[in-house]
Structure prediction request, 473 residues.
Amino acid sequence: MAKLYPVILCGGTGTRLWPLSRRLRPKQFLPLVTDRTLLQDTILRIAQLPETEPPIVIGNHEHRFLVAEQLNELGIRPAVQILEPAGRNTAPALAVAALYVHRSDPDGLLLVLPSDHAIADVSAFREAVLAAGRIAERDLLTTFGIQPTEPHTGYGYVELGEPLPGERDSYRIRRFVEKPDAKTAQGYVDSGRFLWNSGMFMLPARLLLKELRTFRTEILAAAEKALDAAARDLDFLRLDAAAFEASPAESIDYAVMEKTSRGAVVRADIGWSDVGSWSALWDIGNKDQAENATRGDVHVQDASGCYIWSDSRLVFALGVKDLVIIETDDAVLVAERSRAQQVKDIVARLDREARSEHVSHTRVYRPWGYYESIDAGERFQVKRIMVKPGEALSLQMHRQRAEHWVVVSGLARVTRDDHVYDVRENESTFIPLGAKHRLENPTDKPLYLIEVQSGAYLGEDDIVRFDDRYNRR
Prediction:
């Protein structure tokens, strides 16, 4: 079989999984199903496949350090991490990936995997991948189809054509149907001729480029310009913003798969879930005798059919039925499980009201570590900061606030204007308004400190960077 090039799609905001999933740390970077994140589980599923190259990871520039850190935790280095300047759906992203692979291996196969899906049967998944690879080598654009269990209106459907000789549970595609209404979906399920479209594909790079050239030349042209003008940024490949943003925003389903005559599908009985809502997590979760699925410090009494997640404190559910209850340190969601898809409307409302609870958690991750808000009031804010071993914040200045740092544990190396000095456990230092400063951890252990900010304005945009090892602007 030709070489496989896994293409891991890391875009998406996971709005239906609020309040755990947020814009700066969406669902693919969260441990929602196992102790690892969905992205990490995706990467590990492909680790044992034969003839497989290191993954090509495509995602938003805002999440670049999250991706890099989570892959580094697995000891996996990607072939390339491609940064999209803006979301343009899957067709432009896959056009870039196909161009990237085709330039070094015209016969390469793209194994396209969203980073936010769950798959229970990894062995069956790998068998399906091998089957899809054999089918794709027949010059077919191949998708992985899932046997429907209900008339779901949130999925696309694939109608089966004639069986492919020599392969079990493999067919030509008669047609793609995007997200039908409930009555139509029920008819599809009853007919037995339709599978759910999983969003996973096996695509010959050469054939995908040919079909894009036939059906969506604008997307291919924009992708080619964006890749040709891409710039290296540390370990990242940053696509040219103007060229990429000029591309139409379309899914690969709409741009190619609905139009091509070279489509095929393999039925994949792999325990698949797109983890698209809290009810989807209830579906695949471990349940008690009363059909409750829980995570964290959760207790139930006379409750049934609930999905309950505690992130930071005790949650006790008494006498309730078919609810979703999600607790975080700054927001709580309580909803009927049947209305879990509508959580995205809450996120839209928070956005309209210019709130921040849908953007980030109180703990905000940075490439050097994290900070979390402890308290805030008029003209002050208190944060807890962790700096990873060997890392450093940027050399920076604030125009409207001063800062007091108290080291809780570890050792801090502080730059304040022209003075560089160490601050040890139980010691403190003061950074005046307007002082050029940097915080570093020169040790092999995490550094923890408390930061007290005071001033007329305490927003995160009050920062002037002079030097940053992560090339942030």
About this structure: The chain has a mean pLDDT of 95. Residues 122-136 form the longest helix (15 residues).
